[in-house]
Amino acid sequence: MGELAFIQRVLGDAATLVQTSYADRHALRYREKEAADILTGADLEVQQLLVSRLAEHFPGEAIVAEEQGLHAARPEAD
């Protein structure tokens, strides 16, 4: 799969996750990080999805994510 198709698929999956998470606003999980800075469960789930998919597709690359910081590069498979 080409890189553009990969990114489109991952972003589509992330969009579906966000739409599902926000469908029932009364069940939305969140916490305040700082004043006027809210972190929802959907934020963390989407970040986890993106980091895991990127790490799988680009195993030799480190990933910096907003909520969980640096994810070290995994060795590339031979």
Query: What is the number of strand segments?
Result: 4
Distance between the amino and carboxyl termini: 18 Å
Strand content: 15-25%
Strand order of the largest sheet: 1-2
Radius of gyration: 15 Å
Q: Uncertain spans, ≥5 residues at pLDDT below 50?
A: none
How would you spell out the order of helices and strands?
Answer: HEEHEE
Instruction: Please state the average pLDDT score.
Output: 81
- Helix and strand composition category: alpha+beta
Q: Helical stretch count?
A: 2
Overall 3D form: flat
- Biggest beta sheet summary: 2 strands, antiparallel
Percent helix, as a range, is 40-55%
Structure description:
- 47% of the residues lie in helices and 19% in strands.
- With 78 residues, the protein is of the alpha+beta class.
- The chain has a two-stranded antiparallel ribbon with strand order 1-2. Strands 3-4 form a two-stranded antiparallel sheet.
- α1 packs antiparallel against α2 (41-57).
- The longest helix has 20 residues, at 3-22.
- 0% of the residues are buried.
- The mean pLDDT is 81.
Using brief descriptors, characterize the structure shown.
alpha+beta; 78 residues; flat; 2 helices; two-stranded antiparallel ribbon; 47% helix; two-stranded antiparallel sheet; single chain
Kindly summarize this structure in a few lines.
This protein has 78 residues and is α+β, with helices and mostly antiparallel strands. The protein contains 2 helices and 4 strands.
